[in-house]
Amino acid sequence: MIFTLYSVLPVSYTHLDVYKRQPIHDAYYPYDQQRSIFGAADESFVPWNIYMTLQSSIQFADYKINLLFVIAGILLSIVIDSTDDFSTSSLGYKACFVLFLIVMIPFLYYSILTVAAHTRSKPDVKSRKLYFFGEIASMPTSEYISTFRSCTRQDHYDELLLQIHNLSNIALGKFKNYGKALYLLCILIGLLLIMLGLKSFGNG
Predict the structure, then answer these.
(1) Residue 178: alpha-carbon gap to chain centroid
(2) Interatomic CA distance for residues 68 and 178, integer angstroms
(3) Residue-wise over 3-36: b if at least 16 C-beta within 10 A, else e?
(4) Beta carbons within 10 angstroms of residue 105's beta carbon
(5) What sign does the CA torsion over 36, 41, 43, 44 have?
(6) What is the tens place of the pLDDT at every residue in 78-128?
(7) Are 39 and 33 in contact (CB under 8 A)?
(8) CA-CA distances (angstroms) from residue 111 to 8, 108, 131, 196?
(9) Exposed (0-12), middle (13-18) or buried (19+): which is 180, by Cβ within 10 Å?
(10) Residue 163 in contact with residue 132, Cβ under 8 Å?
């Protein structure tokens, strides 16, 4: 006796194509697959990829500014150690020392702005409080779950694109402030080299 594969499969498998065509939604899944965010794995790849790329760029800026902090700390310690005979140092050395301290102030300012960067412009669209942690934490758990599931796929995409725009502003501000801090660090290095040169040639 010959049995076909179709004849021995359970009904749930033989009629799988029928089930796929039927919209599955209830009180827990209020939308069918075409409208729900839970059926958007493929088409949501691009916006989520942009979101994660911006997050990585922000983290990269933080890593680089931390490196500048370390270098500036080393420079400052070298300058402080070289001021044992500051009272007998030349006028040029004292001027470089004062300039070093003056330049250090805006360097710290822009470095802190890089670490604590945030978006200042208010979006022209209303947030649905789906992805930003501050807005999520402001709601009770049950309310957030209900809000998340009650929003359509389009609502989720709009909220995700809103967060992408906010992250873009944050990343832009971070890299602008980082560039200014890097420029000031180069000035600090130049001043340190001049001070060491004055010390080495006996003019410090």
Answers:
(1) 14
(2) 9
(3) eeeeeeeeeeeeeeeeeeeeeeeeeeeebeeebb
(4) 9
(5) positive
(6) 888 877 776 777 888 888 899 999 999 999 999 999 988 776 667 667 777
(7) yes
(8) 69, 5, 28, 25
(9) middle
(10) yes
At 201, the amino acid letter reads F
Query: In this structure, which amino acid lies at residue 177?
Result: N
Give the DSSP letter string of 117-151: ----SPPSS---SSS-HHHHHTS-HHHHHHHHHHS
CA distance 150 to 25: 12
User: Are 161 and 47 spatial neighbours (Cβ–Cβ below 8 Å)?
Assistant: yes
Q: Which amino acid is located at 162 in the chain?
A: L
pLDDT value of residue 33: 55
Q: Can you read off the two tokens belonging to residue 30?
A: 């209020």
Backbone angles phi, psi at 202, to 5 degrees: 80, 15
Reference 27, options 155, 153, 151, 150; nearest CA is 150
Reported as a single tens digit per residue, the pLDDT across 9-27 is 444 444 444 444 455 555 5
- CA dist 37 and 124 (Å) reads 23
Tokens read off for 86: 């500051």
